[in-house]
Design brief:
Structural class: mainly alpha
Number of strands: 2
Distance between the termini: 23 Å
Strand content: 5-15%
Helix content: 40-55%
Strand order of the largest sheet: 1-2
Largest sheet: 2 strands, parallel
Radius of gyration: 12 Å
């Protein structure tokens, strides 16, 4: 499952653009949009099962915001 979020940075795409670019993932309905990295992370953690891995990737801005939310 994929959780997209927009970033408030000059080159950041909004959530609908990210979903559109995801193509097949979006068509399969296995993605969602969140208003912030923290919201997307929370949504992923809620849906994760005991042995699942939550992988956070994107720009340094995305990873830094996720790190801040986890600490």
């Amino acid at each position: 499952q994929w959780f997209f979020t927009a970033l408030d940075v000059p080159r950041g795409l909004n959530c609908s653009e990210l979903t559109q670019r995801a193509g097949v993932v979006a068509e399969a309905g296995i993605c969602g949009c969140s208003g912030s990295v923290q919201e997307a992370l929370c949504a992923a953690l809620v849906r994760a099962r005991e042995n699942d891995i939550v992988l956070i990737f994107g720009s340094f801005f995305t990873v830094a915001a996720a790190r801040d939310a986890l600490l």
